[in-house]
Amino acid sequence: MILEKYKIFKYKDLFWQLTLRDIRAKYKQSILGYSWVILVPLINLTVLSIVFTFVFKVPTGPVPYPVYLFTALVPWLFMSNAIVAATGSVLANASLVTKIYLPREILPLSAIASKLVDLFLTALILGFFMLVYGVPFHATILFVPFILLTQLMLITGVSFILSASNVFYRDIEHAIGVILGVWMYLTPVVYSPDLIPANLKIFFYLNPMSGIIDAYRATILYGVIPIWPAFLYSCLFSITIFIVGLIYFRKNSKYFAEVI
Fold this sequence. Notes:
By secondary structure, the protein is mainly alpha-helical. 72% of the residues lie in helices and 0% in strands.
């Protein structure tokens, strides 16, 4: 209803054109091309697996650590790459913003959509690793799209806020890498939440990505439906940040052409 009111659906062709342009341009004139989508997470997986298997041992139960890690690394890299791309999306399309009318929300949304291809390819690699390590596929994997939808709302809300703010405060685009690096280590990507002291867990799960990462692991690796309080909190937080981000973006988008 909200999207129809702001006529985004009328511009769906432009949305897909921008998305495809971002996909094609990412590795243009790169020797390895889209192979980097797979190589980067594999390199991260190799380094982190060595460190947290042989140096800092992480308890993961019956699941081998590389699979345990990659199950969280895949959605984390998707989120990180999507937010980085979306943050600079308005400035990267300055010519469109200043010359033609279009719902400005299309710009961060198309940047996020282009990263779904990366997510799909890395998810295939995760499935391959599960087969290699003999990790069974559970029926609860059917809940993954719902978890992804929750994560997409979180990503989109954060991206709306950052992409709009970046137009006025250009430091944001430079600081986002540091922010995401800190956020990753506050999220149970490379370690198990069981390592967090009981008296600190309530603060740990104020981070909405903690509940989302736990939900991915529970449904994919352990056959558990994500209905516990942490994931429900993540759902509510994601919905809230999506609404707040959308309102903030639309309120400020009227000034984009003047500032750019």
